[in-house]
Write a structure and sequence with these properties.
Layout (H helix, E strand, L loop, with lengths): L2 H10 L1 H20 L18 E8 L2 E3 L2 E4 L5 E7 L5 E6 L7 E10 L4 E6 L6 E6 L8 E6 L2
Parallel strand pairs: 1-4, 3-9
Antiparallel strand pairs: 1-2, 4-7, 5-6, 5-8, 8-9
The structure holds copper (II) ion.
Amino acid sequence: MNFGALARLARRSRIAAAAAAALLAGAALSACSENAGETRNPTVSGNTGPADVLAIEARDFSFVPNHLEARLGEPITVEFLNSGSSKHSISFYNDAGHEQRLRAAEIEPVEAGKSSELTFESPPEAATLYFRCEVHPDRMRGEVSVGA
Ligand SMILES: [Cu+2]
């Protein structure tokens, strides 16, 4: 349910308004308790929660953060921001040698100051994913622990 739907519900009844307020408070709480670089949402369990969102920033010339975690069995969404002055991209691989690229897990080079988003399926079992910038493949690398 999005904010607009909550607002409409809230206008319809006082009970719904209380429920909406509780939901919003919960969302605010979980947002506040999140540490920088941590992507887990401890208030969500099971398969009904939202996708994991990994916020990854590309600088000249590193990823921040470059070690992240994601839950198993959830689609992985990457919010990618290029805060450097060069073009940067991000691609995800199954192997540390960057030879087995994950299907549809790539953002093409992004201009300085621009952002892009990507969602791909998480691996079937606990695994480490490896990512790198294809423009600076030797310098810009990172890892995502899935289901660790
Ligand atoms: Cu780069």
